[in-house]
Amino acid sequence: MKLAPLLAQFLYSNKRLDLPGIGTFLLEGPIIEETDSKQGKSLKPGDISFENNHALKETPDLVQYISSQTGKIKALAAADLDSHLNVVQQFLNIGKPFLLEGIGSLVKIKSGEYAFSSGDILSEKFKDYTAKEISATSSIEESFSDYKKPMNTGNSKNWRKPAVILLIIAGIGLAVWGGYTVYKITTAKNRSAKKEDIKKDETVLVPDTAAQKKDSTAAVVQVPTGSFRFVLEVANAKRAFERYSRLKEYQWDVQMETKDSVTYKLFMVLPVAVADTSHVVDSLSGVNGRRVYIEQ
Fold first, then answer.
1. Together in a domain, 124 and 50
2. d(Cα 145, Cα 150) in Å, to the nearest integer?
3. Residue of 262, 201, 253 whose CA lies nearest to 95
4. Domain interval for residue 264
5. pLDDT of amino acid 208
6. Phi and psi dihedrals of 30, rounded to 5?
7. Do 104 and 7 form a contact (C-beta atoms < 8 A)?
8. What is the pLDDT of residues 85-128, one digit of tens each?
9. Kind and range of the H or E run holding 97
10. 92/223 same-domain check
């Protein structure tokens, strides 16, 4: 569920926001509310600081606030908060920064602590989020969460997947298919005029552009010392190119290679300590939706 607006409003109102397993945000100084004849009411930021505290477990005041704003019972509000924080920690564990709307961004550093950069207060017109609005934004974020996690047919939360999820997935699929079709048409002449023979044992690396021809040749990626090669998926050409484009849209530093122009391997090279490899594999598998493994 998209709880970022509610988390920000809770911080503005209470000057303190405790997130279990992450830490505490403190707001120092007032939130200045200004009135503009064209834009209505808007907020000016105070000073937001962050204290690491992984031992935080329960936040009854925050759960009560979410329940009152969304109209859900406390048990569901607590479940929504826990799900949102799990997504935050998954991103942080793989070295990706996570933006908390209206608060700032967090990133995990080598010491295992979280570094915080204060962001802008909500720039949109100040308003209270109703249960209907929260439900609508929840549907959009649930569609992205379902893509990252394997489908569980026995999940009791299936009732929270409205028809809008199907429309979003269909729209994304149509956009990818349209882009791939345009690519095939515009490059058909070049591919028919330039056919290159590739040796069976030669490795073809696809660089960071989806417009690269399938049979182009590049050097094998060398894994730097202290880094590991995490294989996300091995698939056929159509599936590999679609998946590659999708991950690039999510700003993943993904690479793709093939040895025979039939099967393609999608992978990431990440600097990870040996002791953290198992944890990173589990985090990537949860976000990727498929089992990730390290290639020696």
1. yes
2. 10
3. 253
4. 198-294
5. 54
6. -80, 155
7. no
8. 888 889 889 988 888 888 888 999 888 889 988 876 655 434 44
9. none
10. no
